[in-house]
Specification:
The chain has one domain (28-235): Ribosomal Protein S5, domain 2 (2-Layer Sandwich). It is 27% helix and 29% strand. It is α+β, with helices and mostly antiparallel strands. It has helices spanning 95-109, 135-149, 176-181, 208-235, and strands spanning 28-32, 40-46, 49-60, 73-80, 120-130, 159-166, 169-172, 184-190, 197-200, 203-204.
């Protein structure tokens, strides 16, 4: 989030820089089975974001100190490739990667039936190949598809999407310019079948009315994204 400067992200007709209206999400495509050595995998292109998620396991949890006697442990690693942004990223696991990995694990643990695999580990690797904006949302969504592709029992999938405020206007699914110059960002993780909220974060300030509008945009986008997820699992790509 930052100041506008001379950047005009929305014109007088309510059209954004990428041609979308305020309530539209970016184009999405999902493909499964992209990592042959993994037990399950998915590649998600969301706008200019390009994300690969791979799942390995269940496997025996090592070292033993991480084992849980009554359930499996979800070991999630979110990483941005050094070439994923215009400014080269220093390789390695930084504080942001750790924070997003933790948030992702908590969101996925809400749906994975970990009690079926005591003393086991399920490893989830999320690699951001190209980053525009909303990479944590794309990563969580891709990981959910990869888990389903791996045949991991789940009560539901997790759909993640973010809306926010730009020029004091609430918009759905922020792009890079809107993320950089906007005033607020509201990423959410939602279970599409129940509408249950499994995570919510907010950066910036929203009035109660703006918060509700962003909430409604996110909830409305869930069904569209979920359709892509289901179609990919049924047909290989959507």
């Amino acid at each position: 989030m930052g100041g506008y400067g001379d950047v005009q992200c929305i014109d007088e007709n309510g059209i954004r820089l990428d041609g979308r209206t305020v309530g539209e999400i970016r184009p999405i495509s999902i493909e499964v089975g992209v990592v042959p050595v993994a037990d399950g995998s998915a590649r998600m292109r969301w706008g200019l974001n390009d994300v690969i998620a791979a799942v390995y396991g269940p496997m025996e949890a090592h070292p033993r100190k991480i084992q849980r006697q009554d359930r499996a442990v979800l070991d999630v690693r979110y990483n941005m490739a050094p070439f994923s942004t215009t400014d080269r990223i220093r390789p390695g696991f930084n504080r942001r990667s750790r924070e997003i990995s933790k948030v992702t694990a908590e969101a996925l643990e809400s749906v994975v039936l970990t009690e079926l695999y005591p003393r086991s580990k399920i490893r989830v690797e999320i690699e951001i190949i190209c980053a525009e904006a909303g990479t944590r949302c794309a990563g969580i969504t891709a990981a959910s598809v990869a888990l389903a592709h791996a045949g991991i029992p789940m009560s539901d999938m997790v759909v993640s999407v973010a809306s926010g405020k730009v020029h004091d206007i609430v918009v759905c699914d922020l792009n890079k310019e809107e993320d950089n110059y906007g005033e607020a960002d509201l990423p959410m993780g939602i279970l599409p079948n129940s509408g249950e909220l499994v995570f919510l974060q907010m950066d910036g300030d929203l009035s109660p009315e703006q918060f509700q509008e962003a909430w409604d945009y996110n909830m409305g986008a869930v069904s569209v994204i979920h359709e892509h997820m289901v179609a990919a699992l049924k047909g290989g790509e959507a």
